[in-house]
Design goal:
Elements lengths: L1 H22 L1 E7 L3 H15 L2 E7 L1 H9 L6 E3 L3 H9 L9 E6 L1 E6 L11 H8 L5 E4 L5 H12 L3 H4 L3 E4 L2 H9 L5 E5 H6 L3 E6 L8 E7 L7 H10 L4 H6 L3 E2 L4
Parallel strand pairs: 1-2, 1-3, 6-7, 6-8
Antiparallel strand pairs: 3-10, 4-10, 4-11, 5-8, 5-9
Helix pairs in contact: 3-4
């Protein structure tokens, strides 16, 4: 009887531990450009805390709308301020948790074996690089952050009328990157961090910083977040332990006071 009681006690403890462990999960909805950095940071955080990070990556616009529709996200990381503002106005994030964590740069990429090593920001420069029927890949220009930044940059530089008819608009920045990496588009506009993530492309131009709004990544815990895993992960991301993961991918970490 004693052995049976002991066995039941051990089984109960193990079951309780399993339930606790299963509950220690945080779901992150992150802009597609954050994938490499957040995956690596998430592994380090899980090793340190035991809290599992589950991540879903897409365009910030798509993720924000999914959260609005009730998708179970605990932490939202956007590639621009507008989509975080969108959720804030709908009271779908915890505003006290919101923080601008990262900056990025907007770049022009070409396939790694392209002849051009640099594409001037001129009508002639892009016409030559695109050829007679080539397309320039980037995100959808009315909703996907990288596409919106690209449109703003080309407008400021007086190139929008030339570029607009040649666009191949993708659902997110990684999809645009893939079009260039596979040689399906001779040029693309992505973030510097995306260019670093794919050896199939090379940077052939960097947008002037004043040609478009600053590329800022705000993070926030959602209003429906379960437990404290998301808040703890965000604290980790704001700290020195996560900084190398972001910098290795080409992000600039904003000092959080």
């Amino acid at each position: 009887m004693r052995n049976l009681t002991r066995a039941l006690l051990v089984t109960g403890l193990l079951l309780g531990a399993s339930i606790t462990q299963a509950a220690e999960t945080a779901t992150v909805f992150g802009a597609a450009s954050l994938k490499n950095a957040l995956d690596n940071a998430g592994k380090a955080f899980t090793a340190q805390t035991g809290i599992e990070i589950k991540a879903s990556y897409a365009a910030s616009s798509a993720l924000a709308r999914q959260i609005e529709a009730g998708a179970p996200a605990d932490l939202f990381a956007s590639a621009d301020l507008e989509w975080m503002d969108y959720l804030d106005k709908k009271k779908l994030i915890r505003p006290e948790s919101r923080v601008n964590l990262l900056n990025n740069r907007l770049v022009v990429v070409a396939p790694k074996d392209a002849k051009e090593s640099e594409v001037p920001f001129t009508v002639e420069g892009f016409a030559k690089a695109l050829g007679s029927d080539g397309r320039l890949a980037t995100g959808e220009v009315t909703s996907v952050p990288v596409g919106k930044y690209a449109k703003a940059g080309f407008e400021k530089l007086g190139l929008w009328a030339t570029i607009q008819p040649r666009l191949a608009q993708a659902d997110n920045v990684r999809a645009a990157l893939a079009l260039v990496s596979r040689g399906e588009a001779p040029l693309g506009v992505v973030y510097e961090s995306d260019a670093k993530s794919d050896p199939g492309v090379k940077v052939v131009g960097v947008f002037p910083a004043d040609s478009h709004p600053p590329v800022v990544y705000p993070f926030a815990v959602t209003s429906e977040a379960k437990g404290d895993g998301a808040a703890r992960f965000l604290d980790f991301l704001k700290g020195p332990a996560a900084k190398p993961f972001f910098e290795a991918q080409g992000f600039t970490v904003i000092t959080v006071k």
